[in-house]
Design brief:
Layout lengths: L6 E5 L4 H12 L3 E5 L3 H12 L7 E3 L7 H15 L4 E4 L15 H29 L2 E6 L13 H21 L4 E7 L6 H4 L6 H14 L3 H14 L6 E3 L3 H10 L10
Parallel strand pairs: 1-2, 1-4, 2-3, 4-5, 5-6, 6-7
């Protein structure tokens, strides 16, 4: 059964999981606002999607999620264009390069925190105020490695921000219980995107070793995002965690890996 179509904003949707979510929502009949940091990347993504789906259901508005004025502008432009927004996904994220915590430049650390934490907070604040005014809506925050407390050497700052996003989302859902807005988390698991590949861009030998594990554990964007999109459209529960992956799925992937070869990264 096809879920009811909704108007959706997705930050960081010019590539990767964000773009995949946009396409999945469009396939389900929804209208989607594409948003990237630059006007050029946003316009390019809109053009690509408008060429495959009904152009009237695709709208673009560039936004730096660390800038309060730009986030507010994203809400106002989106709501004005589609007459209100039903779902807001805080997906924009930045991992930085892999490296020990004492090696990474403070400028990179600030950028990771600003994008992943401040960006999620600003998007949630703006969307929640707007959705309260219209009387309904749902906000979903993208979690990631570190959200569940697990550690990964070389990704301390990214993991720290995602742990913060998890706490923030749980607390925001608690506060949102008195509003007509629901708040939830998205856990896509390990997905084959440039965000994963870019961690190794200056270390080709490490990438070749890591790629063997990623080809066992990672999922394709086009596998994960349709599931997440449908779950968001079907969900009416506040505080939900929509998790595609699980320990059992990971274990099964390892068990079958000698017999089934997948190349999610070629």
């Amino acid at each position: 059964m096809m879920p009811s179509p909704k108007n959706t904003v997705i930050t960081g949707s010019t590539r990767g999981i964000g773009y995949g979510l946009a396409e999945a929502f469009l396939q389900l009949g929804c209208s989607v606002v594409i948003s990237g940091r630059s006007r050029e990347s946003t316009a390019r993504a809109v053009e690509q999607l408008a060429g495959k789906y009904e152009a009237a259901r695709v709208f673009g508005h560039a936004c730096d999620v660390t800038d309060p004025a730009q986030v507010l502008s994203l809400w106002k432009a989106s709501a004005a264009h589609f007459g209100g927004m039903d779902i807001w996904v805080n997906n924009a994220g930045y991992a930085g390069e892999m490296g020990m915590a004492w090696e990474r430049p403070i400028e990179e650390v600030k950028s990771i925190i600003d994008t992943n934490v401040i960006g999620t907070i600003l998007g949630s604040q703006v969307a929640l105020r707007g959705m309260q005014a219209q009387g309904h809506g749902a906000i979903y925050n993208m979690e990631g490695m570190g959200s569940d407390g697990r550690k990964h050497a070389g990704l301390t700052f990214y993991g720290t921000t995602k742990y913060a996003v998890h706490y923030f989302t749980e607390s925001l859902a608690l506060e949102a219980k008195v509003t007509p807005v629901i708040v939830g988390s998205l856990r896509p698991g390990m997905v084959a995107t440039d965000l994963l590949r870019d961690r190794y861009k200056d270390r080709p030998e490490d990438w070749e070793r890591a790629k063997r594990i990623f080809n066992i554990l990672a999922e394709r964007v086009e596998t994960v995002t349709p599931w997440l999109a449908r779950q968001m459209l079907d969900n009416h529960k506040n505080g939900v965690v929509l998790s595609y992956s699980s320990m059992w799925k990971m274990l099964w992937k390892f068990v079958r890996s000698p017999f089934v070869k997948e190349e999610v990264f070629d």
